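Problem 12. The chain below contains 234 residues. Write out its predicted structure in token notation.
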Amino acid sequence: MLELGGKDPLIVLKDADLDFAADAAAWGAFLHQGQICMSTERIIIDQAVADEFTEKLLQRVKAMKAGDPRDPATTIGPLINKAAVDKVHSHVQDALNKGARVLTGGKYEGLVYSPTIVTDVKPDMLLFTDQTFGPVAPIIKVNGPEEALEVANNSRYGLSAGIITNDFFKALDMAQHLQTGMVHIGDQTVNDEPQAPFGGVKGSGYGRMGGKSALDEFTELRLINIQRTKRTFP
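Solution.
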């Protein structure tokens, strides 16, 4: 079994509860400073509600306190090392150089990278293609569910995905077409329970762990045959 991270998409359709969607996106993108394989690393939002959603997310992110993790009020603590900070910042700078906009953040002090929202993200940017593994929320605007699926699947990764909409049947149909090992309807991308199968497809690895799936994955299936009567061979 091999798990290799992801560039996990959160799809928000135009009929979604945007307050809930903003809460979910903030949690999925910034929990543990985005240092989770299932972190929400691409927010794919219907352009009809993109501005309203972005403003709600911006309010939540600006309220986050970055700094010393020993302070109970701190929301965003340090990244693991300087190399991680450099990688995150290079992804943000690459996006800026190619036409994206930073709405908040994009700065760091020591190992603490400020929670960052980047909008107008395009497929030629590292924030779209590569795992950032830091506190950055890239926003990608699309026109409807079909384009949302196309954008979400435009990745060499395929670990986790989230879909937020009030249309359960539409979400279920989309889930069938998402190229990920896990899909969470009505939630963000960071979800894992010990009894549930966990793993990805494409560049996110292969195999599953968790519950019965782990037993199957880590057990060698064998045949032991016992012949209790004397056979006659021609």
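Discussion. The chain has a mean pLDDT of 97. Students who got a different answer should revisit the alignment rule from Section 12.3.
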